[in-house]
Amino acid sequence: MTTEKTEAKGFRIPLFEGLLPIKGSQVPTEVIAGITLAALAIPEVMGYTKIAGTPVITGLYTILIPMALYAIFGASRHLVVGADSATAAILAAGLVGLAAVGSDEYVALAAVLAILVAVFLILARIIGLGFLADFLSSTVLVGFLTGVGIQVALGQIGGMLGLEVHGHGTLGKIVADLQHIGETNFYALATAVAVLVMIVGLKKLSPKIPGALLAVIGAMVVSWAMDLQSHGVHVLGTIPSGLPAIGLPDVNWSWDLIQKLVPVAFAMFVVILAQSAATSRAFAARYNERFSENTDLVGLGMANIGAGLSGTFVVSGSPTKTQMVDGAGGRTQLTHLTTVVVVLLVILFLTGPLAYMPEAVLAAIVFMIGLDLIDFKGMKKIFVEARAEFWVALITTAVVVVVGVEQGIIVAMVLSLLDHVRRGYRSKNSLIVARQADGWRTSPVSSPAQFEPGLLAYRFSHSMYYANAEQFSEEVIELASSADPTLSWFCIDAAAIAEVDYSAAATLRSVYGILKDKGIRMVFALASEDLRADLDRLGITDLVGKDAFYATGDDLLNAYHQRKQ
Predict the structure, then answer these.
(1) Within 13 A of 423's CA, how many CA atoms are on the CB side?
(2) Is 167 left (phi over 0), alpha (psi -120 to 50) or beta?
């Protein structure tokens, strides 16, 4: 995967990056995947409205204009943008005390929050915060998606058993399910099992068959024919229809109101940035596609502007729905535009049949999505090839399952950064030696090898900064003190040194003084132009002399041979 970086200068807003190009042969599959997404997403977003505290119809609105705008302005070909449980929960907590839950004022404030989140996303694009996604390594992405899969799958068990929702968090839900296992509704359980069998069976028969869609339609027909609600099976119930009114939220706009809502909006912005980036990057890596975090910020911002102006709540990238679309064969945003059309038709004409949808069906479908997200093969591969990184991935998985998705993302970013720092903190340095048979080669720092008698070439394999400067100092002084024969020149091979910070420069000056006292000259080889600029600015060039820099190893050798001529 390559990540496209849009430069600050020449700012532009790319369009349809997630849609074009598209092959004509792929269109039927995209359309079917879009219909399948609609079948899953429509009842799911209705559940999110219960978390957010808004009317059921606002859930359908999150799929309408926001999803269409992301398809136009977003960068990911795979990311599904819509309602999200984490942001819905933050919204509900943030509006406590500001308005009565479900009231017109409450809905308007939720729309204001969506607009404020959009402002944060657009500002993040302007000042270039898309790079934050770079702190999510492929290792923690595997752990993150696996954790999300486990969390989602375990969270649906109660729904498949027909139990009322109890407990908070993954572990709390499991405990509650066990405590109420005796209240299992066997009609709901049978419905869920039938849906699972149908989805798995049709997938094995042919991956192109939309098993989830057929299961949803079949379940609604059975629910209507057998009147499952009379047997205690929870169904979605009556859903009002009607298109959203477009316009600014009807609130008493004031600076005091904005001050109250900004912290809530910022919290949702952080979750959206992290979760959406993690999902987009994971699927871009899966298909080796270009992906621009900055363009995605614009797409997410426009989606939330659409949410705010159409009277619904904040939207974010969804890892579960993205996985579902991928499993159905969707590979571009055409899938999501198809979903928009389906939802439009449903809002206008088809809200009636949805009333018969058993909630156990939704739970079963989401359960399958969770299982698909669990990447045991990826975790096993990391365990075999990079044991230390496996523990990073496992910790990320555990935090997502036990604490939450948004906390898991933060931990993933921190662990990725710490892993990078760990590598740079104790870099694997080496010595350059010359051999008659096979030319120049590297040798461990622990060896006494010299490039030529009296000349030692030391390769520092990382940028120099405050954390690894002490390692540099210790190794250089030890090499100079134990050299046999005594050194005349000490060369720092700077090919891998991208930059030097203030603390490392102070260490360089100190080491220079120690070498000078021993009668050893410090020189540099293979320093880049950027590194030379750093050394000039920090006064190192004036200290060692402009003639102490050599572009190639041959130049270094020639100068060393001619030093006394």
Answers:
(1) 10
(2) left
| Range of lowest pLDDT (18-27, 365-374, 474-483) | 365-374
For 100, the enclosing helix (H) or strand (E) is none
β partners of residue 343:
none
- The pLDDT value recorded for residue 208 is 64
Q: Is the dihedral of CA 209, 215, 216, 222 positive or negative?
A: positive
pLDDT (tens digit, 9 = 90+) per residue, 136-149? Answer: 677 877 887 788 78
How many Å is the Cα radius of gyration of the chain?
30
Q: Is residue 74 packed enough to be buried (19+ CB in 10 Å), middle (13-18) or exposed (0-12)? A: buried
Kind plus residue range of the DSSP H or E element containing 435: strand 430-435
Question: Which of 242-275 are b and which e, b meaning 16 or more Cβ less than 10 Å from the residue's Cβ?
Answer: eebeeeebeeeeeeeeeeebeebbebbbebbbbb
Is the distance from CB of 159 to CB of 362 less than 8 angstroms? yes
Return the exposure string of 385-423: e unless at least 16 CB atoms fall within 10 Å of the residue's CB, then b.
Answer: eeeebbbbbbbbbebbbebbbbebbebbbebbeebeeee
State how far the Cα of 186 lies from the Cα of 500, in Å rounded to an integer: 67
> Per-domain residue ranges for the chain?
24-419, 430-561
CATH class of 430-561: alpha beta
Q: Give CA–CA dist 344/134, Å, rounded.
A: 36
pTM: 0.68
Query: How many Cβ atoms sit within 10 Å of the Cβ of residue 215?
Result: 23
In this model, does residue 3 exceed pLDDT 60?
no
Beta-strand runs (E) in 173-325: 316-318
State the first-to-last Cα distance of the chain, in angstroms, to the nearest integer: 53
């036990």: which residue's tokens? Answer: 402
